[in-house]
Amino acid sequence: MKKNRFQTLPQVARWSIVVGLIFFLAMTLMRLATYFFFPNQGLELHGVWKALLLGARYDLRIMSVLILLILIPGAFTPLNPFTGKLQKKIWLVVLGVISFLFIFFYTIDFAHFSYLNQRLNASVLNYLADVKISFTMAWESYPILRLLVIVLLIAFLLSRLVSWAYKKIGARPEISSRKHTIISFSVMILVCGFMIFGRFNQYPLRWS
After folding, report:
1. What is the pTM of this model?
2. What is the number of structural domains in the chain?
């Protein structure tokens, strides 16, 4: 019987890929939600698809960074989430925090766009000049408590998906040889590196 190639990957490699895809799907849904909530931006359908495609390319970068953040430390036995209960708890807590921050910043971006019709940028740091006034303005402009509950709920659901993926992958034994593990890790690092630093067209994507 022919083996599923994905199942021949090391457990931490499989988990990093699934976690990356979960976050990529979440980012895609967030972008679509932004479009449907704010449809009157004067863009034609071609412009919308072009913007979504560009956004997807940046999301692939973030996904690749997340995969590497799991894959590289997980290559070392003491940090591998599948080698002990402590490592498992630490990784699930870390990814839970990442889930919260991820949803939190997307919510801030959503609110910022709703208020100023601009995506979140460095200008938001100006509000830190007077935190009290900025907080009062935000409290009067947005349902802060309701938004916080929504952020916590979505972050919890995202964390549960990550935990579910861990259980599913952990239930399947490690069948990868040392040689295959080295090759798999090397290929994944190269692919993720290309998606982070490589070029998709004539001009490289810029973070700024």
Report:
1. 0.81
2. 1
